[in-house]
Amino acid sequence: MTAPRSLSMLLGLFMCGAAAAQVSARDGYLGLQLKRSDFRIPCGSVAFPCDAGSTFPLYSGALLARPVGVELGALQLRDGRLNGTTVGVVGRARMAPEFGVYGRLGTTFVRAPTSVLGAGVDPGAGVSYGVGLSWDFSPSASAILGWDSYDLRFASGERDTVRSTSLGLQWRY
Q1: Which residues of the chain fall short of a pLDDT of 70?
Q2: Looking at 40-157, which runs of residues are DSSP E strands?
Q3: Is-cis flag, bond preceding 123, omega within 30?
Q4: pTM for the full model?
Q5: Contact in structure between 52 and 37 (CB atoms under 8 Å)
Q6: Which residues cross the membrane (predicted)?
Q7: Residue 110: which region, alpha, beta or left (left: phi > 0; alpha: psi -120 to 50)?
Q8: Where along the chain do its domains lie?
Q9: CA atoms within 13 A on the CB side of 126
Q10: Are 104 and 88 in contact (CB under 8 A)?
């Protein structure tokens, strides 16, 4: 059952990239990040063990009107135990010819594969935002360093944030 969901997410990202290619040949991008998350709830339960874990989320986006664009991404937090999708608006600004900053504001849709003793995540939506730096080391590739925050609703009714730092690569097409 996990394979069809992963395949549909990959297909959705590809379609987002294809739609972005229709906007302009140089305004679409595809990225892959190494992301490390930090929960603000106690760990140690079966659902959320204390190992932080790292994941490799994939995302795609397009600048619609410079410097503002949209982005769609697959999200995995807590060593892949939380799966979700992020949709948001991205703003970019150049600080120097090869260096830039970006900001992101959007919605996160999250689900947990299992809920053990009420420690799972309610399926639903939450706010996500992030900031980061980019370095264009070639005309079609960038290195990205970012910080993101995701608002999640837990089964107990409590809302909490998951913060993550990431290092990644972005390819423009």
Answers
A1: 1-26, 38-55, 77-82, 112-124, 154-156, 158, 160
A2: 54-55, 58-65, 68-77, 82-94, 99-111, 124-138, 141-153
A3: no
A4: 0.70
A5: yes
A6: none
A7: beta
A8: 2-172
A9: 20
A10: yes
Tokens of 143: 């290195």
Q: Please tell me the class of the 2-172 domain.
A: mainly beta
Distance CA 65, CA 44 (A): 46
Give Cβ neighbours of residue 51 (< 8 Å, ≥ 6 apart). Answer: 79
Structure token pair of residue 37:
């998350």
Query: In angstroms, what CA-CA distances link 138 with 66, 170, 171?
Result: 20, 11, 10
Residue 124 backbone class (left: φ over 0; alpha: ψ -120 to 50; beta: rest) = left
Which tokens in the block code for residue 107?
Answer: 């919605």
Task: Specify the pLDDT at position 46.
Answer: 46
**Residue pointed to by tokens 């290092």:** 167
Q: How far apart are the first and last CA of the chain?
A: 32
Token pair, residue 55, equals 């994941």
pLDDT of residue 168: 93
